[in-house]
Design goal:
Elements lengths: L1 H36 L2 H10 L5 E8 L2 E8 L6 E5 L10 H9 L3 E5 L18 H14 L5 E6 L1 H12 L4 E7 L4 H10 L1 H6 L1 H5 L5 H7 L2 H11 L9 H12 L3 H14 L2 H4 L8 E6 L20 E6 L6 H4 L1 H13 L2
Parallel strand pairs: 3-4, 3-5, 5-6, 6-7, 7-8
Antiparallel strand pairs: 1-2, 2-4
Helix pairs in contact: 1-11, 3-15, 4-5, 10-11
């Protein structure tokens, strides 16, 4: 017995040291996040000022939650709702808000549930596409409107596709940027090895605890990785931009809530498989050098979208609205005005 104890002693010591190191590392990550969030209100005010247009932040009640929402543009203008993706927040649309408001549109930009300053319900089931899209339906109606122009990027684009399929009554026009239609995503993820390799992170995000602790240990470094290192035009993100994005990542419970979007879609794929044709006018903007989503995801959409315009932007990465804002804004306004 003593021999066994002697044999196991090094392993026990190693396990104890590893546990202590892990606890210190997790605690240090929480300290890092806490330090970033102390001046959230001031940082949000500065970000609003940098829009160079009259805009306000509101908390809007939807589905028993409150969504932190930026509002700009003439109150009577056509309603445009801008939906961000992962790991973004309302600020990802900073280069579109002014352009759309000055073109006469009422611009509404929420932090979607689980993100930044919006409410973060516990439980993976609260991040199913049905719940995410229901938030936007209620958000549109909270402005006294029956319909809105819905614009989505990345996960925001997935919500936008779902809205146009299952809540078409609230969608006047649809604009999606670098977010695959569910039909083409399922096709490519099942049969295209290149897209399977690009989507490795979806599997990693299914792990409990580890992804949020890794991404949350140093939110500023994580923001640099996501927004600069994965961009073609890395100058699209200033130090201030990175700080705003990092502060959103650092909000309490934010990373777990963001990752629960991925966990929910894997656990309940019915939302991706229950497809309906989209009949509203649709514009798909696609940056060709996206590291996570290949161009093949734009092929074969004709059976699913009856009125589709497709615009490719070469030499541009995933964050297309930030990396090529002038071209994106010109396409947005032209499509909305029918020119």
């Amino acid at each position: 017995m003593s021999r066994l104890r002697n044999f196991l002693l090094p392993f026990n010591l190693a396990a104890g040291a590893t546990a202590c190191l892990a606890m210190w590392w997790i605690r240090q990550g929480r300290v890092n996040r806490s330090g970033l969030t102390r001046n959230t209100e001031e940082l949000t005010w500065q970000a609003l000022r940098q829009l160079n247009i009259a805009a306000e932040a509101r908390y809007i009640a939807v589905n028993g939650l409150e969504l932190h929402t930026i509002v700009a543009g003439p109150p009577a203008g056509p309603l445009v709702v801008l939906l961000h993706g992962f790991p973004e927040n309302w600020y990802t649309w900073r280069k579109q808000i002014k352009a759309l408001a000055e073109a006469g549109y009422r611009v509404v930009v929420p932090d979607q549930r689980g993100y930044n300053l919006s409410d973060k319900p516990h439980g993976i089931h609260n991040y199913r596409l049905e719940a995410l899209s229901a938030d936007i339906v209620e958000l549109i109606r909270s402005f006294g409107r029956e319909k809105a122009i819905v614009v989505g990027h990345d996960w925001g684009g997935v919500v936008a596709w779902y809205l146009a399929m299952h809540h078409a009554e609230v969608v006047e026009k649809l604009i999606v940027m670098n977010a695959p239609h569910p039909a083409t995503y399922l096709r490519e993820i099942r049969s295209n090895p290149a897209q399977q390799r690009k989507s490795w992170y979806v599997g990693f995000f299914q792990l409990p605890i580890l992804p949020e602790e890794l991404l949350g240990y140093d939110p500023i470094e994580s923001a640099r990785y996501f927004f600069r290192q994965n961009a073609v035009n890395q100058e699209a993100f200033s130090s201030f931009d990175i700080h705003v994005m990092a502060t959103a990542l650092a909000q309490p419970e934010a990373l777990t809530s963001m990752l629960n979007w991925y966990r929910a879609i894997v656990r309940d794929r019915s939302a991706l498989e229950n497809l309906r044709p989209i009949e509203v006018p649709t514009l798909l903007i696609w940056a060709e050098d996206d590291t996570a989503l290949g161009r093949s995801l734009t092929y074969g959409l004709e059976p699913w979208i009856s009125n589709l315009q497709l615009h490719f932007i070469p030499h541009c990465g995933h964050w297309v609205q930030n990396e090529a804002p002038d071209e994106v804004n010109a396409e947005l306004v032209a499509f909305l005005q029918g020119t």
